[in-house]
Amino acid sequence: MPAPMRRCRAGLKASGVPSGRRLEAGRTGRDAAGESPILRRPTRAQLGAVYRALLQLHGHQQWWPTALEDGPGARLEICFGAILTQNTSWKGAAAALENLHAADALDAEAILGLPTDVLADLVRPSGHFNVKARKLQEFCTEVVEGYGDIDELLDAEPEELRERLLAIWGIGPESADAITLYAARQPTFVVDAYSYRLFERLDLPPGPRKYDVYREFFLEKIGPDVEQLNEWHALIVRHGQQICRRSNPRCEECPLLRRCPFGQNELGLRTGKPAAS
Ligand code: SF4
Predict the structure, then answer these.
(1) Residue range 26-47: average pLDDT?
(2) At what angle do helices 72-84 and 90-102 cross, to 10 degrees?
(3) Rounded to whole angstroms, how far apart are CA atoms 213 and 88?
(4) How many domains does the chain have?
(5) Is residue 239 one of the residues assigned to a domain?
(6) Domain residues for 175?
(7) Using one digit for the tens of pLDDT, what is the confidence trace for 142-179?
C-alpha cells in the first residue's frame, strides 16, 4: 500500500513506548478506576476549547484521510493495524505490518494460507505475537468465509458494524472503533489510555474510567462528524505521546495548563512546590 503522510506505515502512533509495553494512563490524580467523589463532566464549550488548543499546537493529524478511495487493500491494512497495535505502541505494529508487506501477506487469503507459527514470527515486533497471529487469522476467516471480502464486512451502519466486529474473536472495543472510524469512515469515538489520562488530568472526565462511558459521552457531544472524531482521537494520542506523557509531562509547554489542575500541581503553581514524579 502506498504510504502518504499519516498512513499506517508512516508511523502514526509513533511511540515513546517500547514494543510490547502496555499503554497506561499513569498518574492522573484519580484512582486506577478514574473514580473521584467530584465529577465535572466537560461541557461542549470546554471540549471545544480543549480541541482548539490541541489542534493549534499539533495541527491536523489526518490519519488515513483517504481510506475510502484507497481500495480494499488499504482498508484491510488499517484493520490489521488495529489488531496489531493492541496493548502495544504503533511502532511495533508498524514493524509487523512491514514484515507482512515484505512477505506479500497483506491480504486475507495470504494470511489464512500461512502456518500460524510462521505468521506469528512475522508479527513478532508487535508483541503477544502468538495470540495476534491467531487474531489475524480469525479476522481473515470472518472476512473470507463470513462476508467474502473486507468491503462486505465494512458495509454496515456504524452500530451494526461495531457489533459485527465485536463478534469476531480478538476484536475488542478499541479495535472495533478504530476499524469503524478509520477503515470504514463511520462515526464512533476511539477510547484509549491517552483519553483517560488527558481528561482525568484536566479534571474533566465524563465518568469513571470505563470504555463505554467515554465513548458514549464523546460521541454524543461531538456528534457524527467523522472528520472531527478522527481528529479528536489522533490529537489525544499525539498529545499523550509528546506532551501529556505518562511520566514527566511537559506541562510548561502545554496550552492546556491554564485549565489543568494536575499540570498546575506538577509545576507547583498551586502549592509553591513541584510534585514529585
Ligand atoms: S498541563 Fe500537563 S498534565 Fe495538564 S494536559 Fe497539559 S501536559 Fe497534561
Answers:
(1) 77
(2) 130
(3) 23
(4) 1
(5) no
(6) 72-183
(7) 999 999 999 999 999 999 999 999 999 999 999 999 99
DSSP 23: P
CB 42 within 8 A of CB 206: yes
DSSP state, 103?
A: T
0.70 surpassed by pTM: yes
- CATH number for the domain spanning 172: value is 1.10.340.30
For residue 264, the ligand 1 atom closest to its alpha carbon is 1
Ligand 1 centroid distance, CA of 195 (Å): 12
For ligand 1, mutation pick of 196, 251, 258, 270 (most atoms within 8 Å of CB): 251
Is residue 198 domain-resident? no
- Grid coordinates representing 250 are 511537559
Contact status, residue 185 vs residue 81, Cβ threshold 8 Å: no
DSSP letter at 185? -
Instruction: Catalogue the long-range contacts made by 115-124 (C-beta closer than 8 Å, 24 or more residues apart).
Output: 122/96, 123/84, 123/96, 123/99, 124/96, 124/99
What is the grid cell recorded at 186? Answer: 463511520
Question: Under a CB-based contact definition with an 8 Å cutoff, are residues 83 and 132 in contact?
Answer: yes
Rounded to whole angstroms, how far apart are CA atoms 214 and 177?
A: 12
Confirm whether 254 is domain-assigned.
no
Buried b / exposed e along 218-243 (16+ C-beta atoms within 10 A):
bbebbeeebeebbbbbbbbbbbbbeb
How far is ligand 1, taken at its centre, from the CA of residue 201, in Å? Answer: 7
